[in-house]
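To: structure desk
From: M.T.
Subject: fold request, one chain
Message: Could you run this one when you get a chance? Sequence is below, nothing fancy, just the single chain.
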Amino acid sequence: MDKIRIIGVPEHFNFPWLKVVEAQPFKAQNVLLEWTDEPKGSGAMNKALREGAADLAVVLTESFIKDRIEGNPAQIIGYHVQSPLVWGIHISSQHADRKLEDLSDVPFAISRYGSGSHLMAFLLAQQMGWDTSRLRFELVGDLTGAKAALEVEEPKMFLWEKYMTKPLVDEGLFHRVGEIPTPWPCFVMVASPDAVKNHPDLLKRLRDLVYEQSSNLLEGGQLPQLLSQKYGILEEDINAWLSQTQWAQQALVPIESLTATMDTLKSLELIKETVPTEDLVHRDFVKLI
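Reply: Done. Structure tokens follow.
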């Protein structure tokens, strides 16, 4: 039996994917869907796509676009989340007296170079007027590693999706000193060249099933309770997250959103050049608008 290997972060954004994979809609066609959680984030997922360890990934937009420009052969087959990601800016609660504007010399804990937690540190520094050439980073792997990194006496900053870290803020482990939203839609679906070659029609159907599942979950009325139970986030926080989140419903990709992402990455000197938007997406899968 053939298999399509899908990876994504173990977070509430990807709940529709889990439901589709659970249903195994292509089993009669001798194709199994295999979902793997990747807690280390988009940098690790880009690596898996490059190395052929994954067929499909749900990756942060800015992280994939940078990696694509740097040689990743995979391409976007649709957005997954069209709304911005709101990153919480955290330090240890033992430094709760410090304000964001006083943290220009504090190192960032990041999951991996090229990850969202890494790239967004540059955007934060730019917005704060800090010298981006002086930023320092410490690799921590995932949220568990970040908890350990922030427990030491030296203050460190950590950027992560604000509702996934909200329980840690509520427990008093992290202190949130601010928030920073992405200026672009936050998650893209990305397929490897081999997956596109071997299963083009199935990948389109899979993507569309996720779109349908997202819509059905929103209409069902039970989504806040389901997400709260699965991810350990208060239902009131899930409701707040849902109010500012828009899952994609069709395979339309605005040219402006891709261009704006590349322009921002270039202004931060995170990429050397921009590329035609057509190079980022697979034109058989999406319509650029």
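Reply (cont.): Residues 86-181 form a domain with the D-Maltodextrin-Binding Protein; domain 2 fold (CATH 3.40.190.10). Let me know if you need anything else for the meeting.
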